[in-house]
Amino acid sequence: MAIRKYKPTTPGRRGASVSDFAEITRSTPEKSLVRPLHGHGGRNAHGRITTRHKGGGHKRAYRLIDFRRNDKDGVNAKVAHIEYDPNRTARIALLHYLDGEKRYIIAPNGLSQGDVVESGPNADIKPGNNLPLRNIPAAPWSTPWSCGPAAGPSSRARPGPASSCSARKPVTRRCACPAARSAGSTSAAAQR
Asked: Residue 184 — pLDDT band, cuts 50, 70, 90?
């Protein structure tokens, strides 16, 4: 994802930057994977404004993202398109599985249109593949992972673009984030 920086033509433009959207290959989402998104305008269940200055903006639709991909072990998928998602800063990839199903995933850096991705314990270590934490060797950077069989994929203790597996032990894995590395500490041990 390349960044385009603006020239400081006005005080507000100084330091401004936007994505150049060069990696996007399709402008319309897959209709079967889109749901309506209702804005709340900063109001709670009673209708009272609890967060001021919320609301308005362009209309959005929610794209259904498959974060787990655990029911597609051993089924290869081809990356059909890299798309824009208005609900997040990351790009999303539309996968066409060999069994005919279509799903969205968060597109990691290095994933491009036409790539083949897979999930399962025997998957190769490359961008877009999904495999158990015990099969990831120490040191490579990866996207968010889960710390347990029932946990979701947002398991890093600190924010950042990626995590690394910094130690291999029989029972636990030690997860480190770039922000934590610069601070001189690592996050909690991740369960197998």
From this structure: very low
Half-sphere exposure of 148 (CA within 13 A, CB side): 4
- Assess contact for 92 and 107: CB atoms under 8 A: yes
| Contact (Cβ atoms closer than 8 angstroms) between residue 78 and residue 48 | no
Residue 189 structural domain? 132-192
Residue 65: name the closest of 92, 37, 89 by CA: 92
CATH number of the domain within which 55 lies: 2.40.50.140
pLDDT at 2: 84
- Contact 99/118 with Cβ under 8 angstroms? no
Residues paired with residue 175 on neighbouring β-strands, in sequence order: 165
* Cα distances (Å, whole numbers) of residue 61 to 26, 101, 135: 16, 21, 36
Given a cut of 70, is residue 90 above it in pLDDT? yes
Cα angle: 112, vertex 79, 121; to 5 degrees: 100
Widest distance between CA atoms in the chain: 57
Residue 158 CB neighbours (<10 A)? 16
Residues 6+ apart with CB under 8 A from 38: none
Asked if 136 and 117 sit in the same domain, the reply is no
Q: Pick from 137, 128, 186, 127: which is nearest to 160 by CA?
A: 186
User: What residue type is 189 in one-letter code?
Assistant: A
